[in-house]
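[#protein-structures] MJ: dropping Lipid II isoglutaminyl synthase (glutamine-hydrolyzing) subunit MurT here for a structure pass
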Amino acid sequence: MRYAPAILLGRVARTLARWRKPGGGSAVPGLVVNTIAPGFLPRTLNSFPQGLVIVTGSSGKSTTTKMLVAALRAHGSEVFTNPSTANISQGLTSALLEQVSLTGRIAGDIAVLEMDEGHGALISGSLQPRVVVLTNVMVDQIDRFHDSDMVAAMLAKIAARATGTVVINADDRYLVDIGDAIRPPVSVGRYGVTEAVLAANPRGLGYAATAATRLNDDDGMLLTAVDGRDARVRVDRTDLAVRLPARGTHYAVDALTALAAARAALGTGFDAARATAAISGIAPVFGRGEVVTVRGTSVEFVLVQNPASFQLNVDSLAPGTEQILVAVGSDVRDPSYLWPADTSGLGHVLIASGSKAHDIALQLVYDGVTVDRVEPDLGRALDDFLALPEPATGMKTIIFSADSMRRTRAHLGLATNEADPS
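AK: finished. structure tokens for Lipid II isoglutaminyl synthase (glutamine-hydrolyzing) subunit MurT:
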């Protein structure tokens, strides 16, 4: 009961925050609890009977976590998890407050948590995860993480806390080095893509790739084919089909990551067919290939968070998409950050918007993309874009950075926080 006062104060803070700003303030209660009871977060996370699974890395955390949770639940596990918008320390604590009892306990067999690399490294010393899942190392959030070596060091720190298995992407040389440093009794689970998949993605997959031949059928899971939203994976010499929540090889890699993580978490109880069936049934994760109906029209939301995700999403855009709005906001502090992405595949963009509208328009034009209009006022751009007649081919598509995603959803009356279903 020593955490009861902190839990009560956190819930009061949550109520006040939601009253003041509906759909926002999700980190405030966590900040309150972490300040007055710093031991609450690690104690609660370490208390699940079947342990804690941490999913972290530069990209793919949210989708991988959602897929993994679906696979575990399909095996009968009661899983506690956090929304992708709550992956830093305060957000994690806020997510716990939604379900924790006054004694600091949460009903559930296992916890599967997406964790921000930086915050995960800060709190990892007090955690005892049974499984740590590392997705990749990319140039991402350069205002926070200045280079890839810094990110790799943070992931290594989190991986060092694993008590059971560290699951790594064997096509990322940074993660290969982390895996090579793991010693028994902790094991390493590996997954990767085949040469055929790499050949189908000539621009690469965004991370520092090694030779895909590092893995074979005996020591890892393999992604063998991707066609739009359909993929094939090889698990224990058996080929299985997976339906993806959105188009793109990066989503197929997320599915493979989730499968490898599920096997690490379930051990001999892992059923690959059951896991792939569960993953095939999930909906897109908040803003990532999500299709919504607003003002009587269907719109696809495509979130880009770094040059690699920008490139992969451009390359996987549905053929014939003729109505595109690109909005880049204040989260992209240095617009040159996105310039490594070749956006020429977009061909024609109707509106460039967001606080970095002129900057993204310049990049698009340099890449040979026709831009009809530059409109920094995102609300006006959205209203005009949605008022256009239905496209003759494809679906209205909005490609946005995280800041513009939140502003877009707020303007359209949609939930701006994944933890808020309103």
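MJ: nice. The first strand starts at residue 52 and ends at 56.
AK: one more thing. Residues 249-266 form the longest helix (18 residues).
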